[in-house]
Amino acid sequence: MAGAAPAQAFGGRPSADWGVQVGDVTGESGLVWVRSDRPARMVVETSATESFRRPRRFAGPLLGPDTDFTGTTRLRGLEPGQRIHYRVTLVDPDDHRRTGRPVTGTFRTPSARRSDGVRFVWSGDLAGQGWGINPEVGGYRAFDEMRRLDPDFFLFSGDTIYADGPLTETVALPDGRIWRNVTTEEKAKVAETLAEYRGNFRYNLADENLRRFNAQVPAIVQWDDHEVTNNWYPGELLEDDRYTEKSVDVLAARARRAFSEYFPIPSLRPGAREGRVHRVVRRGPLLDVFVLDMRTFRDRNSPNRQAENAQGILGREQLDWLKRELLRSRAVWKVIAADMPIGLVVPDGETDFEAIANGDPGAPLGRELQIAELLRFVKRRRITGTVWLTADVHYTSAQHYRPELAAFGDFAPFWEFVTGPINAGSFPANALDGTFGPDRVFVKAPTASNVSPAEGYQFFGEVAIDGDSGELTARLREVGGGVLFSQTLRPGLVGQ
Fold it and tell me: What ranges do the domains of the chain cover?
């Protein structure tokens, strides 16, 4: 199914075999996504009851080849704190009497009452390093486990596909077992064409666990590097022999289009400002989620030790936007969803660096200058309740950033929680950079590189905000293994 081309014949009825998704839900609105197997008109109905008594109807777009038969419909006029049932019907554009079987889903809108609390999960890194959908181990098991927790939403922290990671039918494991991947034509090589990028996103939807999860849990999605290619930055020219297209800018444009087609993301819909992944999703009085884009506006990867670096990893415009939005937020907690960690050293080759840290524990240099500016702003403007969540490094850890341990101390203490992968190779823990004084309070990581999901080390995180006390509890979880670490934070503190 995942690699099949949409049917061009007009016989039969349109089908939505890839399921439904909901994204960026607020108290008043949300986005519903679907893909058809042929040209069709998308129609969404919502109801307060599963029986769909007195449904509201939302006319959606015409789904055709221009968007790979995908489409998104905005739901407006929703009420806070409600369970919404929805169904998507695909209608033959030439005969409205011919409709496909409705596909149903459900989600909760954020409550306007603080007392109701908030609970969500987050992770990243799906189908990487050669480890795809393996039916023999239950497919993408993490999504079934997260769904059973019944969270309010899922924060997908980047590396939602591995466009640069081809899959083979079998992989030999160190103990002699065989890992067996579901394979498709588009996953047989690195993605370069728009069709190949689309096929990478479609591949993941072949997993039943993910489709069931999508129908129950709305998402907030961001991207990182593997939606395009490993460690990419604007203007890069690849030296990878697997690619015939060497311009990363060309590849990124194709990947961005496929990304916007396969996730319900408001800022990337047709007519929206190009490249605008960063945004704020307001989840009621307890929580605002600030989604960062650490790819589109970054400078080139380098030794990262410039004494001046206005562009940094966010770009000036995005940094100024983030400062403004943090300042105007009235939420108790301000989760900063970063697609890369702050104080973990992530190299790119022998001399360059991929993330923020540069391996020098001294004063801020390179991309660290932008983070120093942001942390100083949070302290001096007395912005309370900031917590950083990320994935990217393929293990799980908790860092407490403390000024008394730092070379740069002009900030308030804060926490950064790292988790992932969901279904990808796991790797040893990265070194820490002392510039911002990270104290690694917890870590679980393998000692070998590219440990398969069959051996464990697959992680996600859970955040629960108590409606009465306002306390935020972050839990790091292992798939199949329960809670590994838990940290409760008090509200009303600058930084956190």
Answer: 20-109, 118-489
Tens of pLDDT, residue by residue over 102-116, are 999 999 999 999 999
What CA–CA distance (Å, rounded) separates 473 from 295? 29
What is the spatial distance between Cα 428 and Cα 55, in angstroms, rounded to a whole number? 51
Q: Are 220 and 339 in contact (CB under 8 A)?
A: no
* Averaged confidence pLDDT in the chain: 95
Distance of CA 495 to the CA centre of its chain: 23
The helix or strand, by DSSP H or E, that contains position 72, with its residue range, turns out to be strand 70-75
Question: Looking at domain 20-109, which CATH architecture does it have?
Answer: Sandwich (2.60)
Question: What's the CA angle centered on 145, arms 426 and 200, to 5 degrees?
Answer: 55
| Packing angle, helices 194-204 and 248-262, rounded to 10 | 40
Residue 470: CB atoms within 10 A of its CB come to 18
Mean pLDDT on 246-258:
97
In CATH, 118-489 is 3.20.20.70: no
**Mean pLDDT, to the nearest integer, of 392-397?**
98
CB within 8 A of 259, min separation 6: which ones?
160, 197, 201, 223, 227, 265, 268
Among the listed residues 464, 468, 466, the one whose alpha carbon sits nearest the alpha carbon of residue 476: 464
Rounded Cα distance between 242 and 240, Å, is: 5
Gap between the Cα atoms of 158 and 175, Å rounded: 31
Is residue 126 within 8 Å of 224, Cβ to Cβ?
Answer: no
pLDDT tens digits for range 285-342: 999 999 999 999 999 999 999 999 999 999 999 999 999 999 999 999 999 999 999 9
Rg (CA), the chain: 22
The pTM of the full predicted model, rounded to 2 decimals, is 0.95
Q: Which letter does DSSP use for residue 64 in this model?
A: -
